[in-house]
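User: Putative group II intron-associated reverse transcriptase. Structure?
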Amino acid sequence: MNIYCNKKLKNINWHNIHKKIFKLQTRIVKQLKKKNFRKVRNLQRLLSKSFGPKLLASQKLINKKNINKFNRYKKNKNDLFLNSLNLNNFIQLQSYNRYEVRDSKDFSGLIYFQFLQLLYILTLLPINETLSESLSYNHRLYRTQVDILNELYSTFNFAHYNWLIIIKPASFFKNKNKTWLLKNVFLEKKFLEFIIENEKFANSCIKYYNHTEVIETRKISLTKLIKSSCFYGFAQFTKQNLSETVSHTLNKNKLLNLPIIFYNDLIFIPGKHLIDLKKIYKLIFQFLNKRGLIIKKNRFWIINILSGFNFLGWSLKKKKGRVIIKISRENIKSHQIDIKKFLKSARFLPIDKVIIKLNKKIINWQSYYSYTPNLYKTWSEMNYYLFWQVWRWCKKRHKNKGAKWLYNRYWYYNEKNKWVFHDNMQYLKKYKLKYMKNVSLPSRINVCEIKNWKANQYTLLARVTNIQKF
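Assistant: Predicted structure:
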């Protein structure tokens, strides 16, 4: 793979590397749709052995904190280009017996294992994008937790679905599942066997992509991608079995049109009546049993949506045919306890540093929940709680001082806000983010099928700038 590099600056054009990786991924998708599995494997090997993806994987390893202990490749601390090249040379000098790494203390082997995981993630992402179901959000490209929230809202809003079954299958990487994975997953058998044998070691090496990059926008691991491959082909399985068992065409259409949603290890099955849900539950049990998976009693929930349920920090409840989404009370209380504990531990810290750390917590919590409607009440409640926690903290810090002295020392009057906590040019922020309309990327769109590289970049920009154009 050709890499465009300025000799004077010694910087790589990462845009062209991402572009060429995306082209190889689109070629994998085309050959997979034609069912040329040998060509798919050849393209996967080409992607894993080419210089561009290796350089990208080595740069990600340099950015990790734990790798700072390893100083063999660090000739120039400030030059990422030379560091990544030196790490890439070190990795290529490693012996081929990479699957014998069993101890986390073996640091050179652990680096090599992490490096291989990153390369195999790049090869498996387009396969996961094409083979996953139409309503699947299992580690798909550019999908976030807000997408499944929108999907649940659209399925239950103005519809007659009042019941929901949530299933979390178990016994991944057991003997029956192992045999199925070795036959069906597009991965080297030696490497897959090593991951199955050392599941805890593989889960500890989770890889993530930064938000500014083009390929992926959230945390992802190879074990999660392998688990999501167990849910491929559910629609074909239901069509075959319903034609054999169910005689009525109306019942067939009802069961086939049910929007079954997949998210991580969870399966969501909405329905009008519990009788219809029992039939689909039997089909899912048969489908999972063939893949070597089991449904346990502790990992099976039947929920009435009229009473409501909590999911990913939100509470979903149906009233008069409409779904009401709010921030769950448990999450609000946990955030309040987090602020209280931090202020107790930060008794002897400088006040400007305390303000900076509190601002980070406020911004992160607000940005996660900024997509929920009717936020004014929760923001006012949190501002009230934050003010009194900071006021008590300041009183404990200055026990001999009065209320007027504290107000003149740490607060000032503003036209918009009467009480603004500040110290050393650092100002405490408030909960005041407005409701943001999220551009949901539908699950039916295959990102790797987009022909133009500019169109692929536009999908990523649409997630950030709230522009919708597909």
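The two ends are 30 Å apart (CA to CA). The first strand starts at residue 5 and ends at 6.
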